[in-house]
Every structure is written in structure tokens, then in C-alpha cells.
Amino acid sequence: MHILHCDLDAFFASVEQRDHPELKGKPVVIGAPPNSRGVVSTCSYEARQYGIRSAMPSSQAYRLCPQAVFLPPDMKRYQEESRKVFNILAEYTPVIEALSIDEAFLDLSGSHSIWGSSMAIGHHIRHRVKSELGLNISVGISTNKFLAKLATNLCKPDGIMEFTDQMVVDLLPTLSVDNLWGIGSVSAQRLNHSGIYTVQDLLDAPEQLITSLLGSNTGFILGLAKGIDNRPVTPYEETKSIGNEITFPKNVSDSLAIEQVLLRLSEKVAYRLRRAQLKSHTITVKLRTPDFHTLSRSKTCPTAVNDSRSIFDVARMLYQQSGQEGKPLRLVGLTAGRLQGSEYEQLSLFANSGPDISSVIDRLNQKYTSGTIIPASLLDNHERNQ
Ligand SMILES: [Mg+2]
Q1: Does the pLDDT value for residue 54 go beyond 80?
Q2: How many other CB atoms are found less than 10 A from the CB of residue 73?
Q3: 63, 95, 129, 151: least buried by Cβ within 10 Å?
Q4: What is the pLDDT of residue 345?
């Protein structure tokens, strides 16, 4: 039993209730305002009693519970609190896989000689997070990631549970199929329509039927149904920067051509940032002259960015101030550094306006090979005239 999963309970709402005692015991909803088109990010357990859930439209949450306190997310503070929690976790093992801002897997196989059993470590972590940060964290322990996370889900809120080998035999088969990793509400419905409700039903059904319902995921999910999950805990390597560069077949000195290249690179880097759900604070332009002399020019942006327009504006300014304008270059590069997560901010993108244009472009480009949607100035005259 060396895999530990932990998950802070109603994290954002709990931070608000801790810091604003007048909110304690009240339904608290963190997310978009109720009169917007945005969604609920997190809600307190008091709010859950009214049927409010994460990702539900805020307007619906308001209809369910008009007296709830709606608050905008304060991501900076939640990120600070998350860092403190992860610092505590890091004392018990270096092998930590963050699943999100408030959820992680720990591989404790090298920790027992110092800290004792996984259960003992779980109690330690819960006690420390509660006494040092005033937050509840639920802990699940088992032999693999799937069972550890399942244990957490079963003991939440404010619980600790070990999913034992005996439970794989007695308990797991009785659970509904949506407890299996990768079975969302759509797959669950599909299975239910075929009379498959529990994990045991799934194991008893003909594999051909399951394959027709679950597709390529079948083998993995049937493994989970038997309590098997061989995925290792993979520590997340922090992406330090994202960059692209172009070496020209022959030297280019035309400044307009260089700016077009910078625009193309801005598009690429911005797309990669958004795919990784990251934003960048620092844009760097690299310029190499024909004699292999390389210059780097950086600028730190007041707010982190991941849209091509903002990145290009900085990149062009750096180029114009580099002293290389109009001079021949053999290579141009663009790097976005000092990265931070953007995933939680994206929830609020839909709050007051339509969908973010950049994400629409990304979806179109993913659907029809990359490069379908590009700014008009990237098209050369030949393409434009077609
Ligand atoms: Mg949580």
C-alpha cells in the first residue's frame, strides 16, 4: 500500500471560509457571477446540499440557492495556499504527481523507513494541513493510483481510507461503473442502457459488448474493474519555457519579412502555451547574425500572456530596439519564459463575453490541420490573391 492520493476539500471555498469567518457554515460559490454566462468553479459543502456542483452554470446555481454567497476566484491566493500544501507533501517523498491545484499522487515506496506506514503518513499530512493551514485534505491509500483515488472519493470530505486487497474483492464489484477512471456520464449512460450498472455487471458482460461500448479504452477499464492499474506516479516536470526558432535558407535583412517571421513564431508559441494551459511573463527574442553572433533581448510583461497578438507586440518591439533592424540575420527565435498555469483563469473567460477567440482558433486549427486560421499578414501576396 504505497500509493497515496490526496485532495483538498472544496478547496477555493474552504480558503474563503477560513479567511472570512462570517462565511463559515454558509453556502459559498466560487466562480462567475450568477447574472453571467460563466460557471461554478468550486462550492462549499453547504452549497452542495442544494445540488450545486462544479462546472454548473452560475445562473443555475443561483436558481438552486439564491441565498448563496457568490465570490470571484482569487487564484493568486489559492496558488499560494496550494504551494504551501505541496511543500508539506514534499517532505514525505520526492515522487509527487500533481493532478491539479489541490490534488496529488504520492509514491511512498521509499518513505516507510523514515515515516512509517502509508496510513501513518496520511494521518501526518492531514494533521499538518489542518493545523498549519486550517484546511481539510482527504487521503486515500492503496496499491495503485486508481484505487487510491477511489478511496479518497469514498471517504470525502475530511476522511482517510485505505483501499485494501479485501475491498477489491468485496467492495469494488458492488460500486457503480462511473467509479472507474475514464467512465464519464456519457459512457456510464451507454453502459446502463445495456443493463450494466455495477463493476460486477461490467466483468460479467461479454467483452465484445464492452468493446463496442467503450472502444479502445476497454482493456484499461476492464483492468480497473479488477483493481489493476499499472500507471506509475509520474512527477510533473515543470516546463521552464516554450520557444520556437527559424533558421533561414539564406540571410534575411528585410525588416518587414523579419516581423512576419516573428508573427508566425508568436502564433506557434501562443498555441503551445494555450495547449499546455500556461501563460508567460517574459518574452525573449533571439537574433543570430551571419557571423554567428547571437543576441537575446527580453521583456517582462506586466501581466502573463498567451495570445499571439500580445506576444507579437513585445517581440516586434524587442526586434525594433535590437539595433538589428534592416541588417542581415540567419536565425530568428522567440521564447516565452517564466510560465504560470492559466487553466483556472479560463473558467472566467466565459463569464461576461463570448468564447475567447484564441481558443476558438485553436479548436479550428486542431480540427483542420494546424495553420488553417492565421492572421492575414502572414499570407504572402500570392496566397492572398488566390
Ligand atoms: Mg479538491
Answers
A1: yes
A2: 19
A3: 63
A4: 45
48 C-alpha to ligand 1 centroid (Å): 13
- Cα–ligand 1 centroid distance for 170 (angstroms): 27
Query: Where in the sequence numbering do the catalytic residues fall?
Result: 103
- Name the domain boundary from 225, 255, 273: 225
Gap from CA of 111 to ligand 1 centroid (Å) = 24
Residues 207 and 305 in one domain: no
User: Domain tally for the chain?
Assistant: 3
Residue 232 is assigned to a structural domain of this protein = no
Helix (H, G, I), strand (E, B), or coil: what is residue 197?
A: coil
Tell me what percent of the residues of the chain surpass a pLDDT of 90: 72
Whether 324 and 308 share a structural domain: yes
Residue 37 domain flag: yes
To which residue does cell 446540499 refer?
49
Ligand 1 centre from 6 Cα, in Å?
A: 8
Same domain membership, residue 270 and residue 125: no
- Please give the Cα distance from 218 to 208 (Å, whole number): 10
Q: CA–CA separation, 47 vs 18, rounded Å?
A: 16
CA of 196 to the centre of ligand 1 (A): 29
Residues 351 and 377 in one domain: yes
Structural domain for 56, as ranges: 1-161
Which amino acid, one-letter code, is at 35?
Answer: N
pLDDT over 70 percentage in the chain? 87
